[in-house]
Amino acid sequence: MRHTLHEMLNALLVIVFLAVVPAHAQDRSSSAVIFENVRIFDGTGDRLSGPSNVLIVGGVIKTISSAPIADPPDVTVQRLRGDGRTLMPGLIDSHWHTMFVAPSMPQLLDGDLGYLTLLAGVEAEATLMRGFTTVRDLGGPSFALKRAIDEGRIVGPRIYPSGAMITITGGHGDFRSRSDLPRSLGAPLTMPELINASQLADSPDEVRMRTREQLLLGASQIKLTAGGGVASPHSPLDVSTFTEEELRAAVQAAANWGTYVGVHAYTPEAIQRSIAAGVKVIEHGHLMDEASARLIAEKGIWLSFQPFSDDGFMAPMPASSVARMRQIFAGTERTVALARKYKIKMAWGTDILFSAANATRQGVQLARMAQWYSAAEALSMATASNGELLQLSGRRNPYPGRLGVVQEGALADLLLVDGNPLTDIKLIENPGKNFLVIMKDGKVFKNLVR
Asked: Which domains does the chain show, CATH number per domain?
């Protein structure tokens, strides 16, 4: 009965979205776009190109040339004057929660999936208008929203969905109160489980089943919480949750579908146990030690990092969560130092939760990386490096093709920036003013140059 109700709700949401087709999304089949006189940051280098012209046809970058580009035959061509401004890849957030960024924690626990999805739809357009053309969703029931965006029903970024966070009893993602215990075998699912925000699994077989459920729903990668966290009420940071056998069950199930597992993990024990089980990505890692950093580097594991700091913009949280968050803040500098020392493969993300106001600071969080990296290095993390990370989804990649680069043959997710972000990375903090054109999949969603 639960699955039937979910199917009916998802169908109703799609019907609602039918009336909201974006008029400014172009028909790719009969149109092309040419950027004229732009200087390109391609996502990998440390300087801009000379004056260039870029042709986009069918959602793909077809030609990059220093010479003028003639109109291709049999299509309507839109020419956008760059006037020497910077053309760069659309930004990618490697750790985003599409469904959880806008609502408060009480709204999430209320369990109204329709309301949460509508809030997320509004926030999805705001995300794209901040220049984030792709997000890797690390937990939440985002499948219906992704479908509506991909069908052009509403405006938003590409979404690489994980589906529900998979956790254990008492782990990060178990939002029950003490009064909900004990839970008898065969008892009804909790509200977060019913809306597929998180799923509890306490054996290898349960982990395997929950993993396969998310893959059935359309997950491009799987998210487990291998250690304690901040937002959950009863999850100390030092706790290691899944056993190695449980983690390996998820890794094997994901591999059978041609994809991978990423884990929420802060501590050395959680990190090392996850790597032993075959996990490909460590999310966070802020309490790692030297041995853990060395292991991550030796095994070629990705670190999906967020520059957490006490800047006064925390979402409302209980006192116990705030105390745990301050432990994470204290580990940020050391984690960056270890990542640089061992040349760890770094992805960048935000992990903003339960605050639409904080979501507006997505670009600010990226600019913060310039404390430790050059502007080019920071921007490369949010473009080419994150695009490389997304390729780990293999056969489950919902958007086959190269993302995060301005190269011939790459997918046409592009930003025209009024200025040079390699010399002033703070330009990305004000996308409303400085991002003159926002393109995703070859379609222009914002144009201030006309």
From this structure: 28-90+403-447 (2.30.40.10), 91-396 (3.20.20.140)
Token readout for 77 is 């061509």
What Å distances lie between residue 425 and 50, 145, 309, 405, CA to CA?
Answer: 20, 31, 19, 18
Residue 316, pLDDT score = 62
Per the CB < 8 A criterion, the answer to whether 174 and 142 are in contact is: no
Tokens 């109160």 belong to residue: 177
Q: How confident is the model at residue 20 (pLDDT cuts 50, 70, 90)?
A: very low
Please name the amino acid found at residue 52: S
Per-residue pLDDT, averaged over 379-398, amounts to: 98
pLDDT tens for each residue of 242-274:
999 999 999 999 999 999 999 999 999 999 999
Paired with 165 in beta bridges are 198
For the chain, the residue count is: 450
Prior bond of 182 cis (ω within 30°)? yes
- Higher pLDDT, residue 52 or 237: 52
β-bridge mates for residue 76, sequence order: 31
What Cα–Cα distance (Å) separates residue 107 from each residue in 9, 162, 171, 317, 351?
18, 21, 21, 13, 18
Long-range CB pairs of 360-365, under 8 A, 24+ apart, other chains included? 360/126, 360/130, 361/313, 362/93, 362/127, 362/130, 362/132, 363/91, 363/130, 363/131, 363/428, 363/429, 363/430, 363/431, 364/429, 365/306, 365/307
Contact 163, 141 (CB under 8 A): yes
DSSP code for 377: H
Neighbours of 412 (CB within 10 A): 26
Which residues contact residue 298 at a Cβ distance below 8 angstroms, ignoring those fewer than 6 apart? none
Distance CA 86, CA 223 (A): 35
Q: Is the pLDDT of residue 166 over 80?
A: yes
CB contact at 8 A, 108 and 197: yes
End-to-end CA, the chain: 52
Q: Which residues contact 296 (CB under 8 A, 6 or more apart)?
A: 271, 275, 282, 285, 288, 303, 342, 344
